[in-house]
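The step that takes the researchers longest sounds almost clerical: writing a folded protein down as plain text. The outcome of that step, for a single protein, is printed below.
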Amino acid sequence: MSTTKSTLYDIRGNAAWITLNRPDARNALSQDLVEELYAHLAAANGDAAVRIIVITGAGKAFCAGADLKGKSGPSAGAGSGIAFDQVLSAIWNSDKPVIAAVNGSAFGGGLGLVGAADIVITSDTATFSFSEVRIGVIPAMISVVCLRKLGAHHGMRLFLTGERFDGAQAVEYGLAHRAVAAEDLEAAIDEEVATLCLGGPNAVAECKKL
């Protein structure tokens, strides 16, 4: 049995970096990954030294969505652990700003993480897709967070077609705030962290509630 963790947790200055660490599976949402991600979010929120939470992916993908090859995925959890909707709620309701650093493809549930995050910085070469319709299902759970950013206008077409779009289009659609060259992504995240840390912690938390 592999002892490799499905996620990595690293404190860098004022930021807690959570890295989805299943690059061979394009960081698909296995049950282990979902539960580890939830635990890391709780740890970061409980650490007074952490001001910002950053979620990114290892390898060439951010997150490919549900682990279709595994025995459990983001919909698992009824009586068997943490469910993916609990992760989305933890991101959305976090007292601390959550940044999605989208390093590569974000499909299905991966777009749920993007939709739940407060700030999204993406590589301009990243690809996005609400791919559920292509396999005969719907993006029901993630629509709760994604439609708040997309609105019905963009959401209708993207949900119905499953069409792929890039980082610049993600900004146009309202899913991302900035699209940068892949080699500049980490620097852009550092800039965003530094800017957020200029605000008072309590004021930032209250702004999130607003």
